[in-house]
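== Folding the chain ==

***
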Amino acid sequence: MVERSDSQRLRHPEGDHLRSVVDDGSLDRVDVVFANELLDNLAFDIVQCGDSGWFELRVGTDDTGFALVGGSPAATPAGVDDAPAGSVLPVIGPATDWVRERRRRFPEALVVVLDYAAATSVLLERDGEWLRAYRSHDRVADWLADPGRCDITIDLPTEPLAAIGSPIIETQAAFLRRHGIDALVEEGRRAWEASAHVGDLAALRARSRLTEAGALLDPAGMGSFLVVSWPSEALRLADGTPTRPTLSE
């Protein structure tokens, strides 16, 4: 597990098959790279559609404090056919750079990204609500009002990620079902039915599996998160088409 914070890293459990490191530079073999809600927290740019094309928005100042101000012309974001003036979208250069670097350094690894993401056309409909800020788990209305005191996150546009190789893009629910969650749920159901009268830790763990799976697969909640996965080069067909590997491969 990669954890840059020294204090957080000290709190992580360790064992024969688990350790926490400050970065992945010391790893010489990686079979699976799993980035859970990482890319939405990396740096990003904001572009806006004007009357004559797209341009960057930068953080500047006005009479009220920090504000977004117009900057240099920008390329039309991938996936945009037409957009009304005033539309804003994220540009996720650092996120795509991160994926490319992991695929370059660990070509034999399965790279999996789980995050808030949607097609650019969907982000346009959200009218800037693809950007959110939180402090102590509460939503912050103005993320520029108190810089450095809130967490900023975005919904990722899928088109830049899809342009990296030929990834598999699916919902979290589909991903988990492909990797056998239904069998695990059924196993937990049988274990709970067999030992519910005992009520020991094993029985409670089995019952917990049922409720947790429901949340993870909920199409109106976590089940709708997107998973983007890049199979290792060894798991591609002769024509370059990615296979659909399991995490055990």
